[in-house]
Amino acid sequence: MRFDTIWRGARLATLDPSREGLGIIEDGTIAAKDGRIVFAGPASELPASADAPERIDVEGRWVTPGLVDCHTHIVHAGNRAHEFELRLAGASYEEIALAGGGIASTVKATRQASEDELVRTALPRLDHLIAEGVTTLEVKSGYGLERNTELRMLQAARRLGTERAVRIRRTYLGAHAWPPGETNRAAYVDEVCQTVIELGGSGLADAVDAFCEGIAFSPEEVAQVFDAAHAAELPVKLHADQLSDLGGAALAAAYGALSADHLEYTSEVGAAAMAEAGTVAVLLPGAYYFIRETHLPPIDAFRRHGVPIAIATDCNPGSSPLTSLLLAMNMAATLFRLTVDEILAGTTRVAAQALGMSDEVGTITPGKWCDLAIWDVERPAELVYRIGYNPLCGRVFAGRSDPA
After folding, report:
1. What is the DSSP letter of 210?
2. What sign for the dihedral angle of Cα 30, 340, 375, 378?
3. pLDDT score at 403
4. Quick one: three-class SS letters along 111-171?
5. Are 234 and 226 a contacting pair, CB within 8 Å?
6. Are the beta carbons of 256 and 277 closer than 8 angstroms?
7. Angle separating helix axes 115-130 and 147-163, nearest 10 degrees
8. pLDDT one-digit tens code per residue, 373-389
9. Rounded to whole angstroms, how far apart are CA atoms 167 and 195?
10. How many CB atoms lie within 10 A of CB 43?
11. Which residue from 172, 165, 169, 170 is spatially nearest to 134, judged by alpha carbons?
12. What one-character DSSP code corresponds to residue 56?
């Protein structure tokens, strides 16, 4: 039996749902061919005839699926560090916004940036994620708030996947905020819906997102966008219940959304609806921390109803300038009291589900892409326990190794 590469001497956390917990295999072996996993299991079960031109001894290190960051906004121009300084000095969000700050400043900078500039400024953020074992991530638009810039952001996101060994899922988020100076809400929602229809079948967007909140779009406006997405045969996701409960989680579930994200104010009804629809709860502890939120997401309700939970960085310039999924994992434990098993599943298997990629990535099982993270740790809990420490020893993308 001929493979391209065999990794042996590994302690595997396969995240295989057919195995208990993290799907641990103590003396594990992985074999790959044509970028896909062909064998993953105990070394004793590898066929005696197995051979490969490249055989790698992992020397007892832990191997997990490549990490999946299922909610980011890494493509944008500019930053808001100056506004952060102003807030620390006592300025209110309203004062900053009136002075041209807030999301309006990011929109202005992003509209002025070329595609090349957007790619150039996003690459350092992407490199930080890759350096921590991320092999798949979602990138949203949402800082153009007009058709041409939104499309340029999606094109830049697509290019990131050619510049680096990483899988990029692209999400159109035209309904992120109201364009600066926009007074005709209906006209802008119509523009977003028309763009959604244009994106259908284009291959430029993999999903459609919206922000359902009092400061953003109403449930009725979101429903219009989601109706357009269904017509365009694009799956949906939703920024829901971050600052208040407008029924966003239940709305997302009603449209069979891949995920509903943030969810600090989600109700029991919303959690039950998500469970029934199979909608993933994507928790974003970086934003919770950065904006000093105090209302915890309903973790117990999600557990009680069996809602799958994912964790992501929400990397963005305004509320979560976070480029460390490992730190987000620690925050999920310390702030939200998630368990190690929940967090590791939430940044691999469940995060893949939130992107509609369960058949492709997220577990170390035959048929999936051979995307791996190799860790120099004594036990998987270290990945959650440590703060500001990166124990990545090696990274594998589509069966090809690269050094950490």
Report:
1. E
2. negative
3. 60
4. HHCCHHHHHHHHHHHHHHHHCCCEEEEEEECCCCCCHHHHHHHHHHHHHHHHHCCCEEEEE
5. no
6. yes
7. 50
8. 999 999 999 999 999 99
9. 24
10. 14
11. 165
12. E
Residue 338 amino acid letter = L
Q: Which residues is 283 bridged to in the sheet?
A: 311
What whole-number distance in Å separates Cα of residue 268 and Cα of residue 28?
41
Q: Residue 167 carries which side chain, given as an amino acid letter?
A: R
CA angle 228, 313, 25 (to 5 degrees): 105
Query: Do the Cβ atoms of 337 and 299 come closer than 8 Å?
Result: yes
The Cβ of residue 276 has, within 10 Å, a number of other Cβ atoms equal to 13
Q: Could you tell me the two tokens for 87?
A: 């807030």
Residue with tokens 């121009």: 77
Alpha-carbon distance of 23 to 349, in angstroms, equals 11
Residues 279-328 pLDDT 10s: 999 999 999 999 999 999 999 999 999 999 999 999 999 999 999 999 99
Residue type, 224: Q
107-166: pLDDT as tens digits: 999 999 999 999 999 999 999 999 999 999 999 999 999 999 999 999 999 999 999 999
Q: What is the percent of the chain with per-residue pLDDT over 90, rounded to a whole number?
A: 94
The one-letter code for the residue type at 116 is: D
Smallest CA-to-CA distance from 63 within 31, 92, 89, 93 is with 31
Burial of 84 (0-12, 13-18, 19+ CB in 10 A): middle
- Strands 24-33, 5-13: pairing kind: antiparallel
Joined tokens for residue 368: 């999936």
Contacting residues for 81 by C-beta, under 8 A, at least 6 apart: none
Q: Is 290 exposed, middle or buried (0-12, 13-18, 19+ CB in 10 A)?
A: middle
DSSP, res 1: -
What pLDDT score was predicted for residue 288? 97
Looking at the DSSP bridge assignments, the partners of residue 336 are: none
Range list of H helices, 246-358: 248-254, 268-277, 285-290, 299-305, 325-334, 340-346, 349-354
Gap between the Cα atoms of 357 and 167, Å rounded? 11
Q: Which residues of 55-83 are buried (b: 16+ CB within 10 A; e: fewer)?
A: ebebeebbbbbbbbbbbbbbbbbbebeeb
Q: Which residue matches tokens 């042996």? A: 8
